[in-house]
Amino acid sequence: xxxxxxxxxxxxxxPMKPEAEDNAHxxxxxxxxxxxxxxxxxxxxxxxxxxxELYGTTGTLQMMGDDWDPDGYELWQxxxxxxxxxxxxxxxxxxxxxxxxxxxxxxxGAKPIVTPEHAYHVLEIMxxxxxxxxxxxxxxxxxxxxxxxxxxxxxxxxxPHLVHDPTS
Length: 168
Fold this sequence. Notes:
Layout: E1 2-3, E2 9-11, E3 14-16, E4 23-31, E5 34-41, E6 53-55, E7 59-66, E8 69-77, E9 82-86, H1 97-108, H2 116-135, H3 153-156
Antiparallel strand pairs: 1-4, 2-3, 4-5, 6-7, 7-8, 8-9
């Protein structure tokens, strides 16, 4: 679903009619009864819920803080039976670090973590969600990409909540 919730607004003291949707609620079907829901908009005043929540068959993961300024995460595991709180492992991480990574790749010739195919896939989802919201018909996503790997063998040896961060 997409729409314009505020048909006229004041921008720099002048009335303006938006030409693009200002809010969206998107359901993504990954197949095999795996779904994602994305809610976004320019008209969300405040919120008090996690930016990202993942529900699995054996637990739940909730990001604390904003998606652009994370403050750690909470993990529920059924076999533990309690919420486990994990602080932000790198509290000094700047939200714009992706741009720094891209510039570094251009300078060094390294391959970026996020590929053009990945970006195209995300763009296709956004455009088809917008089209689906306008006419109410679901759309298939045709593009694919190879997911990036963030595996760090050295970091995998120690659980994140056991790592001491002297900067905090």
